[in-house]
Specification:
This protein is of the alpha+beta class and about 475 residues long. Helix content is about 75%, strand content about 5%. It has 2 domains: about 230 residues; about 130 residues, 2-Layer Sandwich (Heat Shock Protein 90).
Length: about 475
């Protein structure tokens, strides 16, 4: 049994150790997964910011490229309006020239601000500065040419200051604008390519994180399945071990109950044998001694008063010895129970206890005696004897009631007092030999023993045992009485 308990304890300890290691390993794995996930989210956020910046750069480069194309088309329209005026001499062409020149200067100013803001001091900025100067010169030269060719003075204030700056290198302006436009187109394409690369990185990172989470979920569910299976196996093993342990405990309990019943039967038999020997042998010896001492006392009463006094004292001692022998016999094997039955024995026991302890008795016993088997009567009598002894020692009661009810299938004994009452902690104590003895004695006969605290106080004991009828014994021989020596 001890090995079985140790086996169950070792199995439970191994299960707790495995659970602890599994929890620690999964804690480490989850920590690593969280770190990787956080790192991936940081990478994704950085990539998102870079993609947004690259898209903005690409859009800006495309806008600049569009503005450069617009600037080139505005230069072309400027030349067309100048040529139209020189051919037709219409003032509308001169006004359109000035309007286009104003737009051209506005576009050039925006581009100039862009290049100085983004590429201050670079070759692109220097090239566009030169282009802006060429454009101003081109506008001024065109306005001067139209003013000279006009039949009458023109209002060209919107075109700015007209100047004869000489010929403007149109081919240089066009090639520089094309070069700048190509640079912006390459910059926009480079930004788009970088953005696509960052998108691919983000896609790979997101796919990796998703795959990692999927793997973790798969491993988690697999581990949960393994853990559930392992726990189920351990649970089944524990249940099996527990059933075996319960079976072993029940078997040992039955053996102990059988042993207890056997010991009680042996004890009762030994008490009966000892009581018989005391009654037959010691009783005869004491009676013969008393008769001899009484005879000697009568013979020496007149002639030897001193010896007669000693003999009288010896007679008194013999009477005390006979009374002590009777009490011992009654405690070991009550003659009242053997000769007159359970009801008379309970009434006699209760009367004697009430006289010793000044109790008020409330007896609810059958009017006629009942015939039960010997072992049942002894068990009920011993329970009543132990209960009254406990009441006298601990209860401090003033009233005791005893009831006995007999039915066809069972007999019930109830004993109650109005004392201080048994404490709830005492009901659970396993080393109270008196209570254990009563429980064991009743359980050995298939009965039920119940003890509880009374209401409002006191102690109530209730015993129910199977009712086994016994044949009516023969009447005792004439001259035999419970008080005989």
């Amino acid at each position: 049994m001890v090995r079985m308990v140790q086996k169950v304890q070792n199995l439970a300890a191994a299960t707790r150790l495995n659970d602890w290691m599994r929890n620690r390993s999964w804690a480490i794995a989850m920590t690593v997964a969280i770190v990787i996930t956080v790192g991936g989210l940081v990478i994704l956020e950085t990539a998102r910011e870079r993609i947004a910046a690259e898209y903005e750069s690409a859009l800006e480069a495309r806008d600049v490229s569009v503005q450069l194309s617009t600037l080139e088309s505005q230069l072309a329209r400027l030349g067309a309006y100048q040529s139209g005026f020189l051919l037709t001499k219409q003032a509308a062409s001169a006004q359109a020239y000035c309007t286009t020149a104003a737009r051209l200067r506005q576009t050039a100013q925006q581009l100039n601000l862009y290049y100085h803001r983004r590429e201050a001091g670079s070759a692109g900025t220097a090239s566009f500065t030169e282009i802006a100067a060429q454009i101003d010169a081109r506008i001024g030269a065109g306005a001067a040419a139209m003013q000279q060719a006009a039949p009458q003075p023109l209002g060209l204030a919107a075109c700015g200051t007209a100047s004869d700056a000489g010929l403007v290198d149109t081919a240089l302006v066009d090639s520089t604008l094309s070069l700048l436009r190509d640079n912006e187109a390459r910059r926009a394409q480079h930004a788009l390519d970088a953005s696509r690369a960052d998108q691919r990185v983000s896609t790979f990172v997101a796919a990796g994180l998703s795959a990692l989470n999927i793997v973790l979920f798969i491993l988690l569910f697999r581990n949960l399945g393994i853990q559930i299976d392992r726990q189920a196996r351990v649970q089944r093993q524990l249940i099996t071990q527990q059933e075996e342990l319960d079976q072993l405990v029940n078997e040992r309990t039955r053996q102990l109950e059988a042993l207890g019943w056997h010991l009680q039967a042996v004890s009762e038999n030994e008490k009966t044998q000892l009581a018989r020997e005391l009654h037959d042998e010691l009783g005869a010896i004491l009676t013969a001694s008393k008769m001899d001492v009484a005879w000697a006392n009568r013979k020496l009463k007149d002639s030897e008063p001193a010896i007669s006094e000693k003999l009288t004292r010896a007679l008194a001692n013999l009477d005390q010895g006979i009374a002590l022998k009777r009490r011992i016999i009654e405690d070991m094997r009550p003659t009242v129970l053997a000769n007159f039955g359970l009801v008379t024995a309970l009434r006699t026991l209760a009367d004697e206890a009430a006289q010793r302890n000044n109790w008020v008795l409330d007896l609810q016993l059958p009017a006629d005696d009942i015939q039960l088997d010997e072992q049942t009567e002894i068990a009920l009598f011993r329970v009543a004897q132990e209960s009254l002894t406990n009441a006298a020692k601990y209860a401090r009661a003033s009233q005791v009631s005893i009831g006995l009810q007999v039915e066809d299938a069972q007999v019930a004994l109830s004993i109650a007092d109005n004392g201080v009452g048994i404490m709830p902690a005492d009901l659970k104590r396993t080393h109270t030999h008196g209570l254990l003895g009563m429980r064991q004695r009743v359980a050995a006969h298939g009965g039920h023993f119940d003890i509880r605290r009374g209401v409002p106080n006191g102690t109530d004991i209730h015993v129910v045992m199977p009712c086994v009828r016994a044949s009516v014994p023969e009447a005792p021989p004439a001259g035999t009485s419970p008080g005989s020596v």
